[in-house]
Design goal:
Blueprint: E1 3-7, E2 14-20, H1 30-41, E3 57-61, E4 63-64, E5 67-68, E6 73-78, H2 82-85, H3 116-123, H4 129-135, H5 140-155, E7 160-168, E8 171-172, H6 181-185, H7 198-213, E9 220-227, H8 243-252, E10 257-262, E11 281-282, E12 294-295, E13 304-305, E14 308-309, E15 314-320, E16 331-333, E17 340-342, H9 353-376, H10 381-408
Antiparallel strand pairs: 1-2, 2-6, 3-6, 4-5, 7-8, 7-9, 9-15, 10-15, 11-12, 13-14, 16-17
Length: about 400
């Protein structure tokens, strides 16, 4: 079973991630891990912190001479902004010995839409900073680091993952499904919003500028596409093994994601069955085909039927609400005085949808990697490769032989 845990806080010294269940024998390229971390920091509408941080993951264990050992992989990512926030983290009564600088009051005015109030009530905190530091989306840097390792496992088996932004506020792509994997993967890393339509991207940027000028924030949506995914990952036999449910939980766990779609997503509620389900027709039988003997003229299901992959590209969308910190803050109540007051203002982004798409890729990679190991399990890469190729050959033998018998009858 592949699982990961994260520790650390937004303005602590570092973030820590532990990835357990990765087989031995996988060569890990940390330059590619760094590249994904850099992509997470990009995107038009990000805040000032992105100019401070320069994320790199350092390995503490589980990888030796660039290759996984089978032991848990431990990674750490330094928070370079830590030194700028040491005084902010302490109130007067808790200043560390010898500390100098301005003493800061605790945060007591929760921000609507954030974990501030609910977390303070749950954990009985007087200072909301205890909540907002852990609930911060800074934690997703650790997810991207472990997701980059999962991505490299998937690529050993021909699975590739990319994403594209489909909407910012009221400006959106008419038909996200019309964007192919090749188009999404071909978007340059320095694209301002990682949208496949450059003209639409310019309108998205203008919308972000208007929100910034108004002291407001914007959300949007993105789609993650995975190709080369073999059929049979996931299961229909128990609710918690359905792969679409696992994707939904993984995507919804990303801060500010409020809805998830598979394939057509919410549009399935508007169409008749004939406009939703993907017909099955006879297809090629070559060795490169994931489902030999079968083909689908459409992929409205997004590569998943009954909680199981069907060999078509997997397409998962995430819908992100606007960031909770507004420069023109909403009304709130001070926890100390219980009087109405403007919500606290923390340094924040205007729009972070492009960054969320990179996190979405990481979560998709983790879900697919876990499902791949569940299906073709083994403790080392050579063992998993044997199981994978044997299963592919068994499927091809079964359906190609059946097709040949029918044609010869």
């Amino acid at each position: 079973m592949l699982r990961f845990l994260t520790a650390g806080e937004s303005h602590g010294p570092s973030l820590v991630a532990i990835l357990e269940g990765m087989p031995s024998g996988l060569s890990v390229d940390f330059d590619r891990v760094t590249a994904d971390l850099r992509r997470r920091q990009g995107g038009y509408g990000r805040g000032r912190r992105m100019a401070i941080e320069s994320d790199r993951a350092q390995c503490l264990g589980g990888i030796r001479h660039g290759t996984t050992t089978g032991a848990p992989i431990a990674l750490t990512i330094e928070n370079r902004d830590w030194t700028n926030w040491q005084q902010t983290m302490y109130i007067e009564a808790a200043m560390p010995a010898g500390a100098t600088g301005a003493r800061r009051a605790p945060v007591t005015r929760p921000r609507p839409g954030h974990a501030d109030l609910a977390g303070a009530i749950k954990y009985d905190h007087d200072d909301i900073r205890n909540v907002l530091e852990r609930a911060s989306a800074r934690e997703t840097a650790a997810r991207v680091a472990v997701g980059a390792i999962a991505r490299q496992l998937l690529e050993r088996f021909g699975i590739r993952v990319a994403s594209h932004v489909t909407r910012i506020g009221e400006v959106g792509v008419d038909d996200p499904a019309a964007v192919s994997f090749e188009q999404a993967a071909g978007i340059p890393d320095d694209s301002p919003l990682h949208c496949a339509d450059s003209a639409l991207e310019s309108r998205m940027i203008a919308a972000i500028d208007r929100a910034r000028e108004a002291g407001d924030t914007l959300g949007g949506s993105f789609e993650v596409i995975a190709i080369g995914v073999p059929p049979g990952l996931g299961s229909h036999v128990q609710w918690d093994r359905k792969l679409d449910g696992r994707f939904a939980q993984a995507m919804m766990s990303i801060p500010a994601i409020k809805a998830v779609g598979i394939g057509l997503g919410p549009l399935v509620a508007e169409r008749p069955g004939s406009g939703v389900h993907d017909e099955i027709i006879s297809g090629p039988t070559d060795e490169m085909t994931l489902t030999p003997g079968f083909a689908r003229p459409t992929n409205r299901a997004g590569g998943l039927e009954g909680g199981v992959t069907n060999g078509e590209p997997v397409r998962v969308s995430g819908f992100m609400k606007p960031i909770s910190t507004l420069m023109k803050p909403l009304r709130s109540v001070d926890l100390v005085t219980m009087e109405e007051s403007a919500a606290a203002i923390e340094r924040s982004d205007v729009c972070a949808v492009a960054a969320a798409a990179v996190v979405g890729e990481a979560m998709a990679c983790l879900v697919l990697a876990e499902a791949l190991l569940d299906k073709f399990g083994g403790d080392s890469i050579p063992e998993i490769e044997r199981n994978y190729h044997a299963a592919r050959q068994q499927q091809r033998t079964r359906f190609v032989r059946a097709q040949g018998s029918t044609h010869g009858a």
